[in-house]
Amino acid sequence: MRTIRAELGANSHNIYIGPGILGNTTFLLKETGLSGKVVIVTDPVIDGLYGQDLKRGLIQAGYKVTTLLVPRGEDNKSLETAGRLYHDLTDNYADRTTSILALGGGVIGDLAGFVASTYMRGVPFIQVPTTLLAQVDSSIGGKVAVDHGQIKNKVGAFYQPRLIISDTETLKTLPSCEMANGMAEVIKSAAIRNERFFAFLEDNLASIKDLDLPCLEETVFQTAKIKAEIVEKDERELGLRAILNYGHTIGHAIETVSELAIEHGKAVAFGMIAAARISHKMGILDYAGLNRLRELVGKADLPTQMPRMDKVATMQALKHDKKIRNDKIRFVLLKAIGDAFIADNVDLSLVEEVLEASET
Ligand code: ADP
Ligand code: ZN
């Protein structure tokens, strides 16, 4: 098991990563000083795979445990579902010392975290992410939210968990398309911050895809460490944290225009390549760097070409999403593999050019 300490003042907490560590949950909760009731929030599939064993273990150790099930799907990341959870918490006599434990992917983590941040003005929150995306990205950094209307993550808070337990063995049951989606964030993190880790991914991608446990542990550990270090420096996203949005400006526009038919990871994968092409066209990133990114994204079974879709609508979505001044847009660009920065002055015409041409 590997441990990362996220240093966030009074909200500092540990992130534990390793195969089979779900079995250590009781020990880790006790070590963190969490002794009250535990409410597990999960979906029926994850409950069957991991939730029931987890509950049994906690009960054996003397914890009072209740499981609240949320149906699968992003639709449930809503105020309506949050309302139902507040109701169920009250029915189960949950008080200020009751911990809410999110067991699942980003949907469960965001929703349960939002409920934990607001129920009785905040109760202890535990993240137990079971998707690659949640282990490397959404469980870290304290952003919790529900969607509102058509807008993702519209209503939310910054609310740090008391601990994060990432059992890499749970990735063995994850569908391969979910693994690929998570790999987009893994590649993103390496590309913006750590060239050595990027080289590790180039060398070990086949083993990661084969779910080799030591490789998975290293991958989750390195990616989580990159995110935790960025969040430590800029918890509220006033500056540096924005580099985590690398690939997401065009990515979000693609997701919106496809009405979420194109998944987040796939949209971000293309967005990263487009942003690297913009960096190259501006003379900031060399061709070798662009090519390394393109090859790794392709090897991870993620798209390297713009999906067939309305380019005009994509540009409109992009403009809608961002503040534009004098036809210039803010963008995260790459200087080199492992080195990203925020540029304020990218010409919109350049973005348009890159979206239109399918090759460099
Ligand atoms: P993400 O973390 O990518 O946002 P979601 O929260 O949308 O993912 O979860 C994706 C789906 O994967 C859900 O339907 C969930 O039930 C399922 N799931 C999550 N973790 C696992 C796992 N370890 N094994 C199998 N299925 C899982
Ligand atoms: Zn993302």
Describe the structure.
The structure is a single chain. This protein is α/β, with parallel strands linked by helices and 360 residues long. 48% of the residues lie in helices and 20% in strands. The chain has helices spanning 25-31, 44-60, 79-91, 106-118, 132-138, 176-193, 195-209, 213-233, 248-257, 264-281, 287-299, 311-321, 348-356; strands at 2-6, 13-18, 38-42, 65-69, 99-104, 125-129, 143-148, 151-158, 163-167, 324-325, 328-336, 339-347. It has a seven-stranded mixed β-sheet, sandwiched between helices. It has a three-stranded antiparallel β-sheet with strand order 10-11-12. Helix 3 packs across helix 4 (106-118), helix 5 runs parallel beside helix 8 (213-233) and helix 6 packs antiparallel against helix 7 (195-209). The longest helix has 21 residues, at 213-233. The mean pLDDT is 95. Bound molecules: adenosine-5'-diphosphate and zinc ion. Zinc ion binds at residues 185, 248, 264, 268.
